[in-house]
Design goal:
Strand order of the largest sheet: 3-2-1-4-5
Order of helices and strands: HHEEHEEHEHHHHH
Low-confidence stretches: none
Number of strands: 5
Helix content: 40-55%
Radius of gyration: 18 Å
Strand content: 5-15%
Mean pLDDT: 91
Length: 245
């Protein structure tokens, strides 16, 4: 059974404002893999669980048509509002029942989303959608983020504060994710029967952001949202204290 979250308008705004998009280098890794299997031009890419569309639009220079799907009307509205690319469209759809014919997609992606799906059903649906020698790419980032500012000592102290933030939110982690979302991706990878596949344990990307965006990113996580729902005062005080530190 899929886990439906992030569907409200406030969450959609926070996603658009604070969530980190995949780097161009990471998108390049996916395209390099696809280019080994298929000749250009590439026709259709489907980005499942697209949220507010930050990752979806990164695919547009490389495909004739890109479609982002999500269960949340609020997320799709935000994606449409910020869409200025003619070959992108968005459709409301569950990840396990995608509105496309068999063998129609060159690429199916899920960027920081597949851990919320009914994973066996989604993988079957992706298999149905993909053309022969098409590519399925599942991406996610973890809390192994490192903040850098000033000298090494300053960066070390910043990361100690970050770990304090994460530790305070750990009890509110969604049980559907288990102890580590990375383990869920490894399980999906191991279960995929495709003859050619690649597992990338870690792909570092650098983003320059103001402090408020980093705090906003963590506040958009389900663990913080769970604490906010349980005790708004405690959640806001935690965020304020961390920001001060």
């Amino acid at each position: 059974m899929a886990n439906r979250l992030f569907e409200g308008k406030e969450q959609a705004v926070a996603y658009q404002k604070y969530r980190v998009s995949p780097s161009q280098e990471l998108i390049g890794e996916i395209l390099t893999f696809l280019e080994k299997k298929k000749e250009k031009p590439f026709d259709l890419a489907v980005d499942v669980g697209c949220g507010s569309g930050q990752g979806t639009v990164l695919l547009t220079p490389h495909f004739n048509q890109v479609v982002g799907t999500d269960v949340s009307p609020a997320q799709l509205e935000m994606a449409q509002t910020n869409n200025h690319t003619p070959n992108v469209s968005y459709r409301q759809s569950a990840a396990e029942e995608l509105p496309f014919p068999d063998t129609s997609a060159d690429l199916v992606t899920a960027m920081s989303a597949a851990h919320w799906f009914d994973r066996p059903r989604f993988l079957q649906e992706a298999y149905r959608l993909l053309k022969p020698r098409g590519c399925l790419a599942l991406l996610n980032y973890t809390l192994d983020m490192e903040l850098q500012y000033g000298d090494d000592d300053c960066s070390r102290r910043l990361n100690e504060v970050c770990k304090e933030f994460y530790a305070a939110l750990q009890p509110y982690r969604n049980a559907y994710l288990g102890p580590s979302s990375a383990l869920l991706y490894k399980e999906m990878y191991d279960s995929i029967p495709y003859p050619e596949k690649e597992w990338h344990e870690c792909f570092w990307a650098k983003h320059c952001v103001p402090l408020c965006n980093y705090v906003g990113l963590v506040e958009s996580f389900t663990s913080y949202q769970a604490l906010l729902a349980k005790d708004p005062e405690v959640a806001r005080r935690l965020s304020h204290d961390i920001t001060d530190k």
